[in-house]
Amino acid sequence: MMRKILIFLSFLLLVGCFAKKKTTYSKTRTVSVKSSEDDLAREEKTKKDTFENKKAEQVIETALTFTGVRYRYGGITKKGMDCSGLVHVALTENDIVFPRVSHQMANEGKRIKIGQVQKGDLLFFKTSKRGKDINHVGLVVAVDDEIKFIHSTTSRGVIVSSLREGYWNAAFVKATRIL
C-alpha cells in the first residue's frame, strides 16, 4: 500500500514539473487539510479485510484438500468425514476454535443475507423432514454468478455444490459469517 502511494506521489511530482501552471493574482487562496483519521480508519479496515480474506482462503484451501473423501458419520479424517467434520477440521487446522456439530455451528458468528455471502462464510441446511434442527453445513468456496460451497454428502462424499441446485436451495436455512 505504501509503495503504491509513493509511486502515485512520484507521478504527481513528475506531471507537475511539465504541466503549465495557471497564475492567479487576485483570488484569495484557501487551503484545507483532510483529517488523517479518516485515512487511518480506512487503512485499518483494509488491513482487517485482507487478513480475514487471507484466513478465509487458507480455510477454503484446507477444506478442498478433502475433495473426494467418502462420507462417514462423525468422521474427521481422509478415511471419511461428515459435513460438520469437514468444516471443523478446515477451521481447527487454521487455528480457529469452533463447535463440532452443525446445529451448534449455526449458533456461532453473525447471520448474513444471502446477497452478502463471501468466501469463507458458512451455509446451513435442514435436510431432514422429521427434525427441526439444522443438520447440514457447507463452507462457501466461490461467489460468482452462483454461490458454490464444499460439504460432505452421504451419497457422494466431499464435493463442491451450487446453492442454485434445487435440493440445496430448498433445504437452505441461513448463512453466517465467522471470519
Strand order of the largest sheet: 3-8-4-5-6-7
Approximate shape: globular
Tell me the Rg in angstroms.
24 Å
**How far apart, in Å, are the first and last alpha carbons?**
23 Å
How many distinct helices? 5
Element-by-element helix/strand order: HHEEHHEEEEEHE
Strand content: 15-25%
Describe this structure as you would to a colleague:
- By secondary structure, the protein is α+β, with helices and mostly antiparallel strands.
- It has five helices and eight strands.
- It has helices at residues 2-18, 36-64, 83-92, 102-105, 166-171; strands at 76-77, 80-81, 110-112, 122-125, 136-143, 147-153, 157-162, 172-177.
- The chain has a six-stranded antiparallel β-sheet. It has a two-stranded antiparallel ribbon with strand order 1-2.
- Helix 2 (36-64) crosses helix 3 (83-92).
- The model is unreliable at 18-26 (pLDDT under 50).
Helix and strand arrangement:
Elements: H1 2-18, H2 36-64, E1 76-77, E2 80-81, H3 83-92, H4 102-105, E3 110-112, E4 122-125, E5 136-143, E6 147-153, E7 157-162, H5 166-171, E8 172-177
Antiparallel strand pairs: 1-2, 3-8, 4-5, 4-8, 5-6, 6-7
